[in-house]
Amino acid sequence: MKAGDELPPLTIPVTRTLIVAGALASRDYQDVHHDAEAAREKGSPDIFMNILTTNGLVGRYLTDHFGPRCTLRKVAIRLGAPNYPGDTMVLSGTVTEVTDDGTAVVRIVGANGIGHHVTGTVTVSLPEGAV
């Protein structure tokens, strides 16, 4: 692994169930994550995914790639275009830095039909011998 390496993309169908289940699992009871009528009253066309669900999906993307023994040391993400039901988010990553101590920095982008839903970087410690 070296700087510039690209991770294979991960395609995630954004379903109403995923949005609601993610909000419930993270104890985010804001109505815009489960009540379409309330979301519309607040100016959104539908319910939308919360940042904690997005954060979990980013973590899954990296642990699926690097393996369950990797450790996410720092997650610095920012939300952009909302993830609405019926869309698809494609996560992609590029390694920007690898150190001798087994740490990698990965630039993450999660794009949907509107634009970039999530962007940021994640610092990952890899198991010994993985670099």
Structure description:
The chain is α+β, with helices and mostly antiparallel strands and 131 residues long. It has one domain: Thiol Ester Dehydrase, Chain A, CATH 3.10.129.10. It contains 3 helices and 5 strands; from the N terminus they run βαααββββ. The protein has helices at residues 16-25, 36-41, 51-66; strands at residues 6-13, 71-79, 88-98, 103-111, 116-125. Strands 1-3-4-5-2 form a 5-stranded antiparallel sheet, with helices on one face. A hairpin with a 4-residue loop joins strand 4 and strand 5 (116-125). The longest helix is centred in the middle third of the chain and has 16 residues, at 51-66. It is elongated. The chain starts with 5 loop residues before the first strand and ends in a 6-residue tail after the last strand.
